[in-house]
Each structure stands twice: as structure tokens, then as C-alpha cells.
Design goal:
8 strands, 277 residues, binds 3-methyl-2-oxobutanoic acid, single chain, alpha/beta, TIM Barrel, binds sodium ion, 2 domains, 8-stranded parallel barrel, elongated
Length: 277
């Protein structure tokens, strides 16, 4: 697979070829996602919850995001790598937003950045795009402002809310965003937005008509049990496999079945060590 570019993703939208995207937060995961040929990797601020154990995405810092973006870049040379701008890294001024976007690009090494919001962040998106960094938008359910939204619930229900979301999407496209995440909205709204913008839309609970689909890796593989959103799908239960493996290991240690001869070193005869006992 050749390195994926935003140009290639736009072409995929035009041809009606669906785009696949998952998260990765470390080197081994990135390596396997690349091996599977997934087109886009998101180093999402969801890592605050899935790997750092926070209750929301709000606490994760720029330095922590960088710490996770670097190994993903090393592990996955082919997919487009999206670095997520964490809460508080782009809400003070355009300068602050550009400075932090620059850090994700220069110090992290990702290809593009993503930030949350619609009409209200359009000028920030434009400033970052004009400064030279491609931006992906994220509308609908935006976890960084979950308190404002009143919890993890479907957005864009009803015609007025749907229209507001369409306006968000159009504002982001006009600001120069190259793509859009659409999270937790009625399928009809995902379809409408996908038809009305010329940039790729990637849904997570955005319905079947988005140009692509994204899932959080830890949800896909049973590695995060705190809550399981309706829009996700589990493709394997690695969490269960890991617990089984650990239980077997524990039993084998207790019952002296591990290690075996194949797992130990030799290099001196037991009798020769006798005088040292
Ligand atoms: O951080 C993340 O994983 C995300 C996805 C839910 C799109 O933003
Ligand atoms: Na995110």
C-alpha cells in the first residue's frame, strides 16, 4: 500500500470507495492497523479514557498526545495519521491553536490534525489551514464538550438540529477542512451532510451513507469495558483472551508447569556448584 494522502481520500469519495479508519495509541497497534491496510489512523484523545483511565477526554494534555503520536507514526508508515487536538489546546486564540497544531506536526510527526466543533471553530480551522496544516473537523457528538451537550447522546435529532449540523459541516468545508468526522447522529443526517459537502465524511454512529467509518480500536477488540456505545462493533474479544491467558499462566506458575526445559538456560553442571551450596 502506498502512503495515503488527503488527495487519495477525496478521490475515494468521488469514486464511491468506502474509507476505513481506526484509532491507535502505540507502536504495536499502529503496526497491525497498517498491516491490515486501514487507510486512516486517528491518534484520538479518546486515549484519555481507553489508555490513561480518565473518565472523559478533557484531562489529556498536548505532551501526552505527542507521547502517543510519535510511536504510532513509527509503527504505521502507510496510513494517513491524524493527530487529535486535545481540549484546551485551541480555544484561547488563533495563535495558540496554530502553535499547538505545529507541535503535533513537528514534534509528533502526524500528517494532519483534527479538532472538534462546527461554526464556532470555523475561524480557528481556517487559521490552522492557512498556516499550512490540514485539518479534519469533528461534529455531532463532540466528547470534549460533553458537559455542554448534556451527556453522551445522539445529536441532530429533529429538522432544526439537523440543519444546524449541516451548517456546521458547510462552515468547516468553507474554512478549508479536508474531511469530517460525524459522530452519533441520525443516519439521515449523515447522508444529507455527506451529499452536501465535497470532502470525505467519516462516520462513527453517523450511519451507512458516510464516505467512511471509524471505530475506536479498544471498542473493536473488547479492550474497554466501562461503556459500550450502540454504534460500535466488537470484531474480537481480546480482553477475554488476555484474561484467559493470564489465568493459565498463573495456574502454570503455581503448579510448576511453567517454565519447562525449553524455557530455561544451562551453562554449568549442578555437581560443580555443590561446594557453593
Ligand atoms: O478520539 C477519538 O477516538 C475520536 C473518534 C471517536 C473519532 O475522536
Ligand atoms: Na477525539
Amino acid at each position: 500500500m502506498a502512503k495515503i494522502t488527503i488527495h487519495k481520500l477525496k478521490e475515494m469519495k468521488e469514486k464511491g470507495e468506502k474509507i476505513s479508519m481506526t484509532t491507535a495509541y502505540d507502536y504495536p497497534t499502529a503496526y497491525f492497523v497498517d498491516k491490515a491496510g486501514i487507510e486512516i489512523i486517528l491518534v484520538g484523545d479518546s486515549l484519555a479514557m481507553t489508555v490513561l483511565g480518565h473518565d472523559s477526554t478533557v484531562p489529556v494534555t498536548m505532551d501526552e498526545m505527542l507521547h502517543h503520536i510519535r510511536p504510532v507514526v513509527k509503527g504505521a508508515p502507510n496510513p494517513l495519521i491524524v493527530g487529535d487536538m486535545p481540549f484546551g489546546s485551541y480555544n484561547i486564540s488563533r495563535e495558540q491553536a496554530i502553535t499547538n497544531a505545529n507541535r503535533l506536526m513537528k514534534e509528533g510527526g502526524c500528517d494532519v490534525i483534527k479538532l472538534e466543533g462546527g461554526v464556532e471553530v470555523a475561524d480557528i480551522v481556517k487559521a490552522i489551514v492557512d498556516s499550512g496544516t490540514p485539518v479534519m473537523g469533528h461534529i455531532g457528538l463532540t466528547p470534549q464538550t460533553i458537559s455542554k451537550l448534556g451527556g453522551f447522546k445522539v445529536q441532530g435529532k429533529g429538522v432544526e438540529a439537523a440543519e444546524a449540523l449541516l451548517k456546521d459541516a458547510l462552515a468547516l468545508e468553507a474554512a478549508g477542512a479536508w474531511g469530517l468526522i460525524i459522530e452519533a447522529v441520525p443516519e439521515e443526517v449523515g447522508k444529507l451532510i455527506t451529499q452536501k459537502v465535497s470532502i470525505p465524511t467519516i462516520g462513527i454512529g453517523g450511519g451507512r451513507y458516510c464516505d467512511g467509518q471509524v471505530l475506536v480500536f479498544h471498542d473493536m477488540f473488547g479492550l474497554f469495558e466501562k461503556f459500550i456505545p450502540k454504534f460500535t462493533k466488537q470484531y474480537a474479544n481480546l480482553g477475554q483472551e488476555i484474561v484467559k491467558g493470564l489465568e493459565t499462566f498463573k495456574t502454570e506458575v503455581k503448579e510448576k508447569k511453567f517454565p519447562q526445559e525449553a524455557n530455561v538456560f544451562s551453562g554449568v553442571k549442578e555437581e560443580e556448584l555443590k561446594r557453593l551450596y
